[in-house]
Amino acid sequence: MTDKTKAWRILIALVAASGPLLQYGLMAHDETLATLPGKTVEFFSYFTILSNALGAVALAAPLIAPASRLGAWSEQAGPRAAIATYLTITAVVYHTMLAHTWDPQGLRLVATTINHTITPAAFLIDLALRGGEGETRWIAALKSMAFPALFGVWTLAHGALSGFYPYPFMDVPKRGYPAVLVTIGQMGVAFALVCLIFIALLRVRSRMAAAKPAPISA
Fold first, then answer.
1. R_g of the chain, CA atoms, integer Å
2. What's the pTM value of the predicted model, to 2 decimals?
3. Can you tell me where the transmembrane regions are (predicted)?
4. Is the dihedral angle over the CA atoms 195, 199, 204, 205 positive or is it negative?
5. DSSP letter at 45?
6. 20 to 30 A Cα–Cα from 126, which one of 21, 37, 52, 87?
7. What is the phi/psi pair of residue 133, to 5°?
8. Max alpha carbon distance in the chain (Å)?
9. Burial, 84: exposed, middle or buried (Cβ in 10 Å; 0-12, 13-18, 19+)?
10. Closest Cα partner for 166 from 93, 88, 83?
11. What does the pLDDT look like over 87-108, one tens digit per residue?
12. What is the C-alpha to C-alpha distance for residues 17 and 10, in angstroms, rounded to an integer?
């Protein structure tokens, strides 16, 4: 690994971690010991936070513990394609469906920009530059649906108990379970389709890299 590559990876790992941390600090500000647990549950109820946290872990693990199972997993092509999918959909959904519903200012704008724009873009650039290790298998698209499926289950479960739903399109009291379940299913398909695109691009990238002629030695 060159010094420039390592510096780039450290930079985007720090950026990816800073977004959720800043957001949590803003959400926890002025909370009491009685209300902080509930606010913490709300914090981990946003797919934005979960996808950014996963991206930060995947970027940091190979730097901190390259020999660990997590570090090795984070560098594999399949997981990198899946994480790129989560961050891409995070960015697209926010900018097309949610950005117009509020007007963040100050540090909230900083956190929002990092979580919904900078980190997704940086991870995609990193994916394009470095690709991923190992074979890029099509089955990774199916596996990528597990994370959003678990998020859907988590949202419905804690929403039924607390009445809190993080996104309007998952608001059961307003839309009803049938409509929300249809939306979750549609989004699951969208995750798989986007992941297929990233897998295809990574496969093309790998083939192009393998087809490059070896340098002629003197």
1. 19
2. 0.92
3. 43-65, 77-97, 109-129, 141-165, 177-202
4. positive
5. T
6. 21
7. -85, 155
8. 72
9. buried
10. 93
11. 999 999 999 999 999 999 999 9
12. 11
